[in-house]
What does this fold into?
Amino acid sequence: MNYFYYPGCSLTGSAREYDLATRAVLAAAGATLTEIDDWTCCGASAAAPISHLLSLSLSARNLALAEGMASDGDVLVPCSACYLNLKKAHTVLKTDADGRARINAALSAVNLTARGRGRVRHLLDVLATDLGSGGLAPLMARSLSGLSVAPYYGCQCLRPFVEFDNPERPVSMAPLIEATGADVFAWEMGARCCGAALVNTQPEAGLKRVAAILRAAKGADLIVTVCPMCQINLDAWQAKASRIAGEDLSISVLYLPQLLGLAMGLSAEALGLNLNLAILEGVREKIER
It folds into this structure.
């Protein structure tokens, strides 16, 4: 299993633990990640309101760099926002001749050409489809039995591109969680939007969305995510969400590959657990025992 790896900006900063855990788990599973040389920001959500072409071209630049490294190959993207942006650009390159021409006219300024080869894939797709619970089960060194885990998918790995899961009732994390020995917490909030940047632009509205998700997770030991924006909303804003809700909504929040890595016997340091903001002491004792 070989993949081009696009970490994106968040995984080099606020979501460093996601990058560490992703690399560690995939290496332990026998996958090879080749980081795209000289990758740059995909444009996040800031580029599109300024220029649709700019947004597409920023992502296409990274795809062109990957194509220059090999004629074909899948680009693995852990960040859901980056995945969505690269997926949009890839779709235009592959299906829209006029759009491809406009993108490549922009890329000509940096002597690059993108053709839309290979595939853009989210980390969850690779974990669920290429590895699956059957591939992961033999790698488990310990059981996380006794833990109840709420899978939180968020929006952008599921919608609008329906690639590997049901966007309204996703289930792709469930077999992976079960492979660790943990129980899957039954809830209806796994695909609900966390509010994205609303916490910053309209704090009251954003925090209400965060509070609703955290409240629904009561009874679980922890939430696992596959998106840096979702993670920071559920991880960093618990205290403010609790104050708005008038109740304690504290819960541990991990990235999915951190949970998998713990069951695989990887160290807390290798998985970046010291960088998570919300790991309650009782849960820490269970997962690090």
